[in-house]
Protein: Parvulin-like PPIase
Amino acid sequence: MREAMITWMRRLAGTWFARALFVLLILSFAAWGIEDTLRNLGRDTAVARVGSDKIEVEEAQDAARRELQRVQRQLQGRIEINAAIRRAIASQAIETLVLDRAIRQEVERLRLAVPDEAVRDYIFQIPAFHGGDGRFSRVVFDAFLRNNELTEARFLGLLRADVARQQLTGAVRAGAAGPEALTNRLLSWAQQQRTASLVELPFSAAPDPGTPTQAQLERFHENNAARFSTPEYRDVAVATLNAARIMTEVEVSDHDIEEAYAANRGRFETPEKREIFQVVMQDEAAARAIAERWRTESDFAAIETAAQEAGGLASTLPLSSRTELPLPELAEAAFALEPGAISAPVHTAFGWHVMKLGQVEAGHIRTLDEVRDELRQEIAAERAADMAFERVSQVEDALAGGSTLAEAARRFSLGFFEGKIDAAGRTPEGTEAAIPVAAPVRTEVLRTIFGTERGAAPRMQEGDWGFMAVEVRDIQAPALRPLDTVREQVETAWVADARRRSQEERAAALLAATRAGKTLAEAATEAGLTAEELGPFSREASGANPMPRDLLAPVFELRGRDATMIERPQSFAVVQLLGITEPDLSGSTEALATLRTETTQAMAEDLEAQYIAALRARANVRINPRLVDQIAGGE
Structure:
């Protein structure tokens, strides 16, 4: 039986069916090992494509992260970076990479070359790489490369690409020029002066409208319902949690503080810093000669001149710790110097250095007792932050299990508020609602509360406030308050409105009179008012300009003897143009030259922007929105 079974299996193994089965098994095991590859088969892994060039996820993520950090530094926490802003920042970073690729492709198409001499000259012109003598410093340059984790080859490649881009866009910008006809018109427009007649009609100077009747009050009350209605109130429950709230529960032992001090001792040590005057020569003999002269001549300016005449360089290294000095050999020699001593020549890759010790800033170590309270706070804050995340998970589980927000708040010692509030955070009684959050984030918290849907399940949201859960139980729409409860406010508003309408009618009558052919001064006299003649005045709003700031733009839009009527916060103004004084540009050579430069610069920027937009349009750009969303979400 056993031999028959073996014989049958051998026959089966020789069939095409068995061979196909083995192939399928092999393929299945292979697919198991390259699952990720198969999953991405047919899917585009590039965030963007510019022609045949790909921008991969990692490069786009790095660019988006740098742009986000730049924006956060600029905002300084004034605005919360939400999902929409993150996506806009990521899109902008990717667009910058796309434009860079499009320009690079055009450089390659035109076969633009950047000689080594051009790159070298470019580097030498960068002020950040200059030493104390105002010339290129190799020491400073190497320190820059180390601090930015760049190799020299990588940095030179970036500079070469930048120079090529400048060649390309510079050729486009070179065609920009501010024509004389344009700059003359612009300067004439900017320096033009005008004279005008002004009549001001303050609301407070209007005739007394008298006491309103009941019917007038009722009609005004109904027609201005929004002014006399209650605000929208929301019946809410708010629970908050943050590290500061939990810190009181954290215990920090003396042993914990001692361990933290030992682990972070370097934070509390201010190292000694030294100012070093140095001369760098290319051969040892010249360095020794400078050292001998320096020992007898203390004037560093004279030593600097002597070093330059001998083909060397002299510079001052600012106050630096041992680790901040660019080369270990220099650090060792500098920190072995005694005050006033001149070092023997020290050899490095840059030549032979001779040094003299300048100012010394002594080091200092803060003792454990000096930093004990500081460390206690730091340890407590760190542990409280960890505890907060753990407690948030517990709160979420409790809410998911059917607990109310009030029950979860009591159980887990959360900050809690419940009651009716308006969008300003005030209760129906007019008091400030005791929402348990810090004052700086209160506005953002209220915005979040009033952005939450009624009946939505509460969940812990992370923000500048720490963690917060909001439950909107009910929404009370605005309602018109009964007239009897707001009679005094309605009467005051009616009187103010009547005064305003009275002055509006008088201003309109003055304007109509000017359009009928009278001057504003004549119309004002007939109406028992006084017109004030102002000018000549310019467009520039300043303390010396007699025309009010908010009236300048309307006045400079008038033509001929036109007049206009403008409502101001507490008055109506009627203005009539009396005359225009055109400037004499014969003595404005310097102003014209400055304006021509500014106009040329603006036109050059416009030309460059249009050129780059044309390159992008021609580059067949394709962006993967799914991957952009992934990068914006921090994935």
Q: What stands out?
A: Residues 539 and 553 are 8 Å apart (CA to CA). Residues 233-251+374-476 form one domain.
